[in-house]
Amino acid sequence: xxxxxxxxxxxxxxxxxxxxxxxxxxxxxxxxxxxxxxxxxxxxxxxxxxxxxxxxxxxxxxxxxxxxxxxxxxxxxxxxxxxxxxxxxxxxxxxxxxxxxxxxxxxxxxxxxxxxxxxxxxxxxxxxxxxxxxxxxxxxxxxxxxxxxxxxxxxxxxxxxxxxxxxxxxxxx
Length: 173
Ligand SMILES: CC(C)(COP(=O)(O)OP(=O)(O)OC[C@H]1O[C@@H](n2cnc3c(N)ncnc32)[C@H](O)[C@@H]1OP(=O)(O)O)[C@@H](O)C(=O)NCCC(=O)NCCS
Hints:
This protein has a single domain (3-169), classed as Aminopeptidase. Helices cover 29% and strands 30% of the residues. It is built from 4 helices and 8 strands; from the N terminus they run ββααβββαβαββ. It has helices at residues 23-30, 47-64, 109-124, 139-147; strands spanning 8-9, 13-17, 68-73, 81-88, 93-100, 129-134, 151-158, 161-169. It is globular and about 40 Å long. It starts with 7 loop residues before the first strand and ends with a strand. The relative contact order is 0.15. The model has no long low-confidence stretch (mean pLDDT 96). Coenzyme A (COA) is lined by residues 35, 38, 97-100, 105-111, 134, 138-141, 143-144.
């Protein structure tokens, strides 16, 4: 059994690889005001597109061994967002990313997920560094990355957006 696919418990959250049953919850989360504001396409996608996204996430887990988790806070029955690691062929780099439904902002959850993602990537895979890409106006996300020890490196244009690239190196043990 691949134990890396088992749910991971953090202080307030259970993280488990995104699965097809999560598509409807994600579809609803994407309708929340402002949630997709800083993404390349801020229009909430149709359910079929969300289902394809989730299927793509499953395939990513199978191919790379890591990926995006669904985020389940203690006491919740349904995921309230996603976060984790994703390999970006465009940059030949692995990025950490996260998205939460609006009622769950401001509770430290994105920081908890991002810190767990960085630990997971550095402990179990041969990643020398991990990056993040963030819209220059997405201050909350930049703050999350800084709280995780990531540093701004450069600004690049990708997917038609100007994005700030953050980076963290694996600390040798
Ligand atoms: C960005 C996002 C993930 C942050 O999630 P979160 O769980 O609220 O983040 P945290 O609570 O861990 O930390 C947020 C930090 O940003 C700060 N912050 C939030 N809004 C801010 C603002 N407008 N200006 C300055 N700081 C801000 C908070 O005070 C907190 O910092 P602190 O702990 O030092 O007080 C959430 O807003 C979200 O899902 N947004 C939509 C999706 C998205 O943009 N994802 C990121 C793509 S790169």
